[in-house]
Specification:
heterodimer, A: mainly beta, 5-stranded antiparallel beta sheet, globular, B: mainly beta, 7-stranded mixed beta sheet, 50% strand
């Protein structure tokens, strides 16, 4: 069945450093790749997304890249801040959205 | 972000009891989804629903689960005979179409089965 692998499961960085989270997907029909940030006890919040006809997208400190051939996509957060600390989920979507297992990001002040 | 609401926010039930979780739609959104998130784990797809029919469902969505739009408005997830392992957050989500658009998640219902 469809699967999304996400790494690392935990990531700890110093404030100001960059953070990179990587995902791979199995379903070739996937055409939409959202990234969600989830704070404790709250709903997943979309932070950025990328469609299959685009290789890269940037929104201020956040960027995503997509390699359709390799079925890889990545989230890059630059100049991290303590408030970036949360669990981040990648997802791949064709007709249903399959989530990765999540990455717990700690940004140390 | 358009408002997406769910009721109740927290439901406590005894094992074997039936529960109904509700999601309130917003305009222009035709596709509905239910997801489950067991504490500390990933979000898992349960079912998608379009035009009063199930579009896709996962292997988690077995015979104890059902979805419907009983009054053409609210979108419900029913669990017929709850088990301890059904304890989780249940999120509904909506999109304007099936493919490319953002899913708007509701705030979730925390289900606790005792």
């Amino acid at each position: 069945g469809e699967n999304v692998e996400q790494h690392p499961s935990t990531l700890s960085v110093q404030e100001g450093d960059s953070a990179v989270i990587k995902c791979t997907y199995s379903d070739s029909a996937s055409n939409y790749f959202p990234w969600y940030k989830q704070e404790l006890g709250k709903r997943p919040q979309l932070i950025i997304d990328i469609r299959s006809n685009v290789g890269e997208k940037k929104d201020q400190r956040i960027a995503v890249t997509l390699n359709k051939t390799a079925k890889h996509f990545s989230l890059h957060i630059t100049e991290t801040q303590p408030e970036d600390s949360a669990v981040y989920f990648c997802a791949a979507r064709s007709f249903k959205t399959i989530f990765g297992a999540g990455t717990r990001l700690f940004v140390k002040a | 972000e358009p408002e997406v609401t769910q009721t109740p926010s927290h439901q406590v039930t005894q094992m074997g009891q039936e529960v109904i979780l509700r999601c309130v739609p917003i305009s222009n959104h035709l596709y509905f989804y239910w997801y489950r998130q067991i504490l500390g784990q990933k979000v898992e797809f349960l079912v998608s629903f379009y035009n009063n029919e199930i579009s896709e469902k996962s292997e988690i969505f077995d015979d104890q689960f059902s979805v419907e739009r009983p009054d053409g408005s609210n979108f419900t997830l029913k669990i017929r005979s709850t088990k301890l392992e059904d304890s989780a957050m249940y999120f509904c989500a909506r999109t304007r179409d099936r493919g490319y658009n953002e899913q708007f998640f509701g705030p979730g219902t925390r289900l606790t089965v005792l």
